[in-house]
Write a structure and sequence with these properties.
The complex is a heterodimer of chains A (278) and B (210). Chain A has 278 residues and is of the alpha+beta class. Chain A is built from 12 helices and 9 strands. Chain B is 68% helix and 1% strand. The chains are: A alpha+beta (278), B mainly alpha (210).
Chain lengths: 278, 210
């Protein structure tokens, strides 16, 4: 281990501690370049140019602003979605107040029996037939909103529990797929159905029309043969406009108990009156 | 990493540069400018160990030191036309190496990330790992020497760069104050005071070794 001899021509370190440090550093072992050092230098030279420090691809100010932009973007997205979906939510709430009877499917015979027993003297608080006048475009926004925000789609439970049962799905699925109800739930829903009206699908099924609620209203998918509807001339593809004078283009339930004796269908863009003879 | 004493390196360097031993740096550069590749090889052979050692003591990272030393020679080669012979070549090449090393240090600072495991480790713990027991007879002197070198190397690397450059050039590379002042492009007084200040900082950290 060789110690370096201090250069006598240079000013000597005055402090003893500094001198010791100087000796300590000069006594450090030296490292060698690797054996292929010259070869690697040649190879680098052959590559053509020295490695340049990569330029900053983005100015410092932009770099610093990036987190802020990100926060604004995310915050803006949530703000936008919140404000954008609020009107739809309001419509859904309105529908929830009038629609639960329609989406609550109760066996036909049970629903037919219960209203006679517990039908209230006073009419329901919200009349279904009033809805198209006050909210003529209620169904369209609701469907749009439900398509965008499935979490807000009410389930087939009652209005009171709808908020706590946001499970997604669609109106069509909810309307067509019966759900198994517990006895208590069944009776409660039937009573509610009787108070608020009669399921439109049930009225139509009774006279032989297998209808499905779509964007345009209740559309007859098929008409059962040898039924009153088929005899009266209802055809598959007809859109049920009204039943017993109650407009059904926008609603999924009939407010008053209906017999389905007189219906209006929309066929080829024209309203056709059809009298059903049971 | 290969260690050797100062004397053995000097001997080796004197042996490797036998053919152009009498040629000065300026003559070799002139020959390189005229297309003599072997002249540049001789320049590389002359300075490769000292530049590598200087960068190693500056960065305390051998691989990085070798890489930057190679980069230094590449830059020298491509800048030969701009080199003026009124300056000593050794000053010129050390200045390039110093600038590269300082750039590397600043790049490291930018890239420094906080290690999650580092939060719960002390500096002593960080290098501790399981090692099987070594049943060989311990060579105490060698171990102590290695440890001492490591501690000193860490202490140098912990110096601020404005003190580290002159201290390493002076006490490790043995450069004169004038040369250091030229390399750093500073006045002589500033250079001396920085060396003194750097040594003072090292003295505080290396009390046990002096």
């Amino acid at each position: 281990m060789g110690n370096k001899t201090p250069n006598t021509l240079e000013p000597q370190v005055t402090d003893q501690g500094e001198e010791k440090i100087s000796r300590l550093l000069s006594s450090l072992p030296r490292v060698e370049a690797p054996g292929d050092f010259g070869f690697r230098v040649k190879a680098r030279i052959a590559d053509g140019k020295p490695v340049q420090e990569r330029p900053m691809w983005m100015p410092l100010a932009v770099k610093a602003a990036m987190p802020l932009v990100l926060i604004l973007f995310v915050g803006g997205y949530f703000a936008f979605t919140t404000f954008y979906t609020e009107p739809g939510s309001a419509d859904i709430a309105a529908v929830e107040s009038v629609q639960p009877a329609a989406v609550t499917e109760v066996p036909a015979e049970r629903a037919a029996d219960i209203p006679a027993e517990i039908e209230p003297a006073n009419p329901p608080v919200v009349l279904a037939r009033d809805i198209p006048e006050t909210r003529p475009a209620a169904s369209a926004p609701v469907r749009t909103a439900s398509a965008r925000t499935p979490a807000r789609t009410p389930t087939r439970r009652s209005v009171d529990t709808a908020d706590s049962n946001r499970g997604g799905g669609s109106f069509d699925a909810a309307a067509t797929q019966p759900r198994k109800l517990s006895p208590n739930e069944d009776v409660a829903n039937a009573a509610e159905t009787a108070a608020k009206g009669q399921p439109a699908g049930e009225v139509l099924t009774r006279i032989g029309i297998n209808a499905r609620f779509s964007e345009n209203g209740w559309k007859a998918e098929s008409v059962s043969p040898n039924t009153a509807a088929s005899k009266a001339g209802v055809k598959a593809g007809d859109i049920i406009h009204s039943v017993d004078g109650q407009t059904m283009t926008d609603l999924r339930s009939v407010a008053k108990p209906a017999t389905g004796k007189k219906i209006q269908v929309l066929r080829d863009g024209k309203i056709v009156d059809i009298v059903i003879n049971p | 990493m290969a260690f050797d004493t100062r004397e053995s390196i000097r001997l080796e360097e004197s042996q490797t540069s036998m053919p152009e031993e009498k040629l000065s740096d300026h003559a070799l550069i002139e020959a390189t400018r005229n297309g003599d590749e072997t002249a540049f090889e001789e320049i590389v052979n002359r300075y490769r160990n000292s530049i590598t050692n200087y960068l190693y003591r500056f960065l305390n990272d051998y691989e990085e030191a070798v890489d930057l030393a190679q980069e230094t020679f590449v830059r020298v080669y491509f800048a030969l036309d701009r080199y003026h012979t009124q300056f000593a070549f050794s000053t010129y090449i050390y200045r390039i190496a110093t600038n590269l090393a300082i750039s590397e240090l600043r790049r490291r600072k930018r890239r420094r990330v906080l290690s999650l495991t580092g939060l719960f480790q002390t500096e002593e713990d960080s290098s501790v790992e399981f090692q099987p027991p070594d049943t060989r007879i311990l060579q105490d002197d060698e171990l102590v020497e290695d440890e001492r070198s490591e501690v000193i190397g860490r202490a140098i690397a912990a110096l601020p760069e404005k003190y580290r450059v002159p201290v390493v050039l002076r006490d490790v590379e043995g450069k004169s104050y004038d040369e250091i002042a030229e390399i750093m492009e500073l006045g002589l007084g500033t250079t001396k005071s920085r060396i003194s200040r750097g040594r003072g900082l090292l003295k505080e950290k290396l009390q046990h070794y002096i």
